[in-house]
Design goal:
292 residues, Ribosomal Protein S5, domain 2, globular, alpha+beta, six-stranded mixed beta sheet
Amino acid sequence: MTNTLTLLAPAKLNLFLHIVGRRNDGYHLLQSAFQLIDWCDSLTLTRTSSNRIARTNPIPGIAEGDDLVVRAATLLQRGCNVAMGVEITLNKELPVGAGLGGGSSDAASTLIGLNHLWNLGLSRPELMALGLKLGADVPFFIHGSNAFVEGIGEVIQAISLPEQGFIVIFPNRGIATKALFEHPELTRDHAPITIDRFLASPLPHQAFTNDCQAVAMQICPEVKDAIDWITKALPSAKPQMSGSGSSVFAALPSQLDGAGASALLQNLPREWIGRIVRGINKNPAYNSISSD
């Protein structure tokens, strides 16, 4: 077995996000549709004979001990009594604090890769249960396909979605998730919908919204700026924030898919980050695991 493995860690979009309640422990109960996209971080895992877990390259603003990839590796090592260690090289392409799930995806790919490198043989549900200890979005990425997600992120039903093109804009300012979910004006009583109702709705699912968006625009006015920018560039689009923000996305009209869509980004404000992406149906991290 090889000592080194390189995996992708894709972003996701929340095609909608409804908050339908709150548990006694403070966790919010959600409904959402998670769409994988082809905008990815990548990480290289190198198995070592010592039990040391180390990140080989600095990530601006993220201390090594706080990095989800290090925490994921440590959780798996301790939970399975692994004597081996790992060196992790994380190449960040996804912006931090953007609501695209980058950190959760990095953690998921770490668990997927180390389960293989350390020859642990854990099932996907077992990895998902571990992942939930790291964050609500981690089980989705381990699950590995587009999904209708409920609860605090642990109730996952696979769904098939078309490989739609999207424009994604990050206005270069993140939002603290804790501040958003503690905001007194956050909607917490959205009536639940059924998965069948969601799947029966026409793309780009304009009947559904992100309950975090109104509060996010108060905390981070750049969210509204990004929405306004997309609306001006694509008047027929319905831009929406992804997750807890602050990235904003919109489905692309078919006639602008491809090179024509890329031209939109030429007028993007200099400090913003924009990408034209496509939806994908499988987490490409699994492409590196020959047995999966």
